[in-house]
Design goal:
The protein has one domain. Helices cover 75% and strands 0% of the residues. It has 9 helices and no strands. Helix 1 runs antiparallel to helix 3, helix 4 runs antiparallel to helix 8 and helix 7 packs across helix 8.
Length: 239
């Protein structure tokens, strides 16, 4: 039997807090275990330093995936929901046609983001991206972390956990739309570098959330996200 919507939201908030606590701890632990050059005196200094090198970014990606998986397990264990496709949307594929349609939408948004960023002279992300790839001693591992692991982590977090309570709501209901807008806002705020990026990423977040709720599956937004990150990685490597 499903719990009330309010109780599901509370559990999700607790799971998100758990992820925020676990991610830096696991990332620094992995860095210590692998003798990463990003390790510096002080825990938080080391964690920030990990985001500035290619190897460090890969370590954070894997650490965050494990943290999100634990947070998701925590939420699902407490709620034990019976909605179609599961609370996280991992148990259904979503349909090839739906994935293709939503992926085309995401491709348009990704292209728009690239064109707008270039038109407005917003090259900070590209410069940082090139700096990170230049410091990746294991480029294949870095690419796996960015193109495959990071999308899975973020989809589990933003379209899995955050949209979990809306997984059984009618797609066009006011509550479902509210969850879509909330997840897109959080997604955009965490990734944006300026106002233009914020707008484009918010629209992209709405598309990813729409794909998740329409298909009742996490795999549609995951493959959309993989395509976006792969395109971004190619653009960075091309310089």
């Amino acid at each position: 039997m499903r719990r009330s919507l309010a109780s599901e939201v509370l559990v999700v908030l607790l799971a998100l807090a758990l992820e925020r606590i676990l991610t830096p701890i696991l990332a620094v632990a992995l860095a210590v275990a692998t003798a990463s050059e990003a390790i510096a005196p002080g825990f938080f200094v080391s964690y920030r330093a990990l985001h500035e090198t290619g190897d460090g970014v890969a370590l954070v990606a894997f650490a965050r995936l494990f943290a999100v998986a634990l947070a998701a397990w925590f939420a699902v264990s407490l709620l034990r929901p019976q909605s179609k496709g599961g609370f996280l949307g991992l148990t259904t594929f979503g349909g090839t046609r739906a994935i293709i349609v939503w992926s085309l939408i995401q491709a348009v948004l990704t292209t728009t983001d690239t064109v707008v960023a270039g038109s407005w002279g917003s090259h900070e992300r590209s410069e940082l991206g090139r700096e990170i790839t230049d410091t990746a001693s294991n480029l294949p591992l870095f690419l796996v972390g960015v193109v495959a692991v990071a999308p899975l982590t973020e989809e589990l977090l933003y379209r899995g956990l955050v949209l979990g309570p809306a997984s059984s709501l009618p797609l066009r209901s006011k509550k479902a739309i509210g969850f879509v807008l909330a997840s897109a806002t959080v997604w955009a705020l965490e990734h944006s570098g300026n106002t233009i990026d914020l707008i484009v990423l918010f629209v992209s977040g709405c598309a990813l959330a729409g794909a998740r709720l329409q298909t009742r599956s996490l795999w549609a937004p995951y493959w959309m996200h993989v395509g976006h990150n792969a395109f971004a990685a190619i653009m960075i490597l091309r310089g």
